[in-house]
Design goal:
The chain is of the alpha+beta class. The protein has a single domain, classed as Roll (Nuclear Transport Factor 2, Chain: A), CATH 3.10.450. It has three helices and six strands; from the N terminus they run ααββαββββ. The longest helix has 20 residues.
Length: 126
């Protein structure tokens, strides 16, 4: 069994901040570094609450949107509350709360790449 140390939690938090701050600042390098190549990012569309549809975004699309500055309007007060819920060996679960977003993230750790976000499920806070 692998134990989690403060360094893992710090590196996970740094990855999550690369993702959010990269989004807000239009920083493609930070966004690219934070995301696994096979990212699946989903949002719940509540048009039909009986069976909510899931919108899907890839890493390539997130990087493209970041470069276009799409996240600048979402920065709000820039509060980013990161809670590392669980870490086990090469996987982790994180909850992030901002003024605009609530996101549940799953991260994976590669020997060469470090921690990267593989899955994201999000909704708007308001």
């Amino acid at each position: 069994m692998t134990t989690t140390n403060a360094t893992d939690r710090d590196l996970i938090t740094r990855t999550v901040l690369d993702y959010f701050e990269g989004w807000y600042d239009g920083d493609v390098a930070r966004m690219d570094r934070a995301l696994h190549p096979e990212l699946v990012k989903r949002t719940v569309r509540t048009d039909d609450v009986a069976e909510p549809a899931l919108g899907v975004v890839s890493k390539d699309r997130m990087v493209e949107l970041t470069g276009a500055g799409e996240g600048a309007q979402d920065a709000g007060d820039r509060r980013i509350d990161v809670t590392v819920v669980d870490v086990h060996d090469r996987i982790a679960t994180v909850v992030v709360r901002t003024q605009v977003y609530r996101e549940y993230l799953h991260l994976v750790r590669g020997d060469d790449t470090g921690w990267r976000i593989a899955h994201a499920l999000w909704m708007l806070e308001s």
